[in-house]
Amino acid sequence: MKIVIRNARVVTTDGSDPAARRGGEMSGLRVLPCARVWIKDGLIDSIDADPGEDSPEDWRDLDAAGRVVMPAFIDCHTHACFAGDRLDEWEMKRRGAAYLDILRAGGGIMSTVRAVRAASQEQLAELLLVRLTAMLNHGTGTAEVKSGYGLTTGDELKMLRAIRDAGALWPGTVVPTALLGHAIDPDQPDFVDRTIRETLPAVSAEFPGITIDAFCEAGAWTLADTLRLFERALELGHPLRVHADQFNSLGLIGHAARLGLRSIDHLEASDARALTELAASGAAGVVLPCCGLHVDGRYADARSLIDRGGAVAVATNFNPGSAPCYAVPMAVALAVRFNRLTPAEAITATTANAAAILDFTDRGRLEAGLRADIIMLRHRDERLLAHDFGDNPVDAVIVGGRIIRHA
Ligand code: NIG
Questions:
Q1: Which end of the chain is more exposed for a tag (fewer CB within 10 A), N or C?
Q2: pLDDT in tens, 115-129
Q3: pTM for the full model?
């Protein structure tokens, strides 16, 4: 399919370096007020600053007059593969119960673990595909999806296979992550040792090079156990990401540079010193403001991290416990209000920087030769993406050069 988008306000992060933008670079957008984007063979063929009246006959024409065209979102932190719901626990939380107390009492993540263990690989894939479709309609062209609700070797592999299966049926790109250290399973004696000795090598054999993740938190994985898991994963050749400083700062950030962590996600409990250390570490910070909205009103201080020269991405964290939201536009609206990003930084955080964290060099920006993952907003000004909230601002979605949705 050959497509030309005409009359578009083209907005993309500036520069052709695929590395994450840090500090002041995050606000550098390149804006062409009235331009054409030519798409051929799944790629962006060229972009020209000419509105263009007529298109060549064999090109499908999309008129974007009065609308923003930008890279499709890359949602770099989700737990979208799950079964069941946590509605009863949510009501308990509304009455004052704390997230970590519910986890300690055997609920929370463990309640979703029970639902996932009871589901088949096919059921998990079907549930995930429905959610991925909703994500795509809201502009997500690439989604990271974590395991972590299986915890046994068999159930973690079942989740990762379901994520792979759903991804194969979805027009966008799914990036699976093995969240082997998500909780401490009370039903498995020596759970941490078993995860390191048995689950990690089994996952490594079937999914070589997959990113390994853990939840380093009081009541979940201790700092020492997280480091043991990560050191073994590094020996097996796996990149690392981590959930840290969500409720308690256990000191994981101090190890980010040595371990070469791709990202540290959450950071609601990080103080100024930790953010300074993170900014200098090379790891990006991923902030997850839907979690603050749903759990307890605490938000990571992404403003300080960027002001210290750090790289920030924003993601939905879509999951049934702490962030039941799959819409990146909502995460953007919250990140600007509560994590104190500017609208321009939030665009970089959900496109170019998210691509860098997932190690993509072929997407996240609009540039000739990159994959044509593109969205058209109904907005005339990109700041409205952050300003307006509560409905879907995405009028058209193109992934891999195919029009998937056009309102
Ligand atoms: O990133 N905090 C750990 N993991 C998820 C929540 C998962 C759940 O509650 O089911 C998060 O917020």
A1: C
A2: 999 999 999 999 999
A3: 0.97
